[in-house]
């Protein structure tokens, strides 16, 4: 009877489960959401850079904005980000975007959902990336 009371075999299993639940699950949650945010940021940065280049290299000023937005959508679709989740805007520092020396700003924004794994606690994070380029 005394040997039965001294056996702590089950305690090791319970301690292991407690450590896994207490430490590993939050760590996994943070890692997965951090990877998702980083991937979204890199995708938006690539899209904004490509759109700014497309705008300043466009030969026709009236088609430059349409071309820039189309290029941004193409880059984002390569990263499997749906078009309906992203807003792309193109602005210029001067009245005429096609004039030499004008600064073109391309802004790509997306509302990214950080999931908690529970029905409650989900948060939306607004990720905004701006890329600037100068026309020749």
Describe the secondary structure blueprint for this structure.
Layout: H1 2-6, H2 9-56, H3 64-78, E1 86-92, E2 103-114, E3 123-134
Antiparallel strand pairs: 1-2, 2-3
What would your notes on this structure say?
The longest helix is centred in the N-terminal third of the chain and has 48 residues, at 9-56. The protein has one domain. Helix 2 runs antiparallel to helix 3. With 136 residues, the chain is α+β, with helices and mostly antiparallel strands. It contains 3 helices and 3 strands; from the N terminus they run H-H-H-E-E-E. The mean pLDDT is 87. 50% of the residues lie in helices and 23% in strands. It is rod-shaped. The chain has a 3-stranded antiparallel beta sheet, covered by helices on one side.
Please trace the helix and strand order, writing H or E for each element.
Answer: HHHEEE
Distance between the termini: 90 Å
Q: What profile does the largest beta sheet have?
A: 3 strands, antiparallel
Give the strand order, joined by hyphens, for the main sheet: 1-2-3
Shape: rod-shaped
What is the residue-mean pLDDT, rounded to a whole number? 87
> Uncertain spans, ≥5 residues at pLDDT below 50?
none
Total DSSP E strands: 3
Helix count, per DSSP?
A: 3
The helical percent reads: 40-55%
Number of domains: 1
- Strand fraction equals 15-25%
Please tell me how large the radius of gyration is. 25 Å
Structural class: alpha+beta
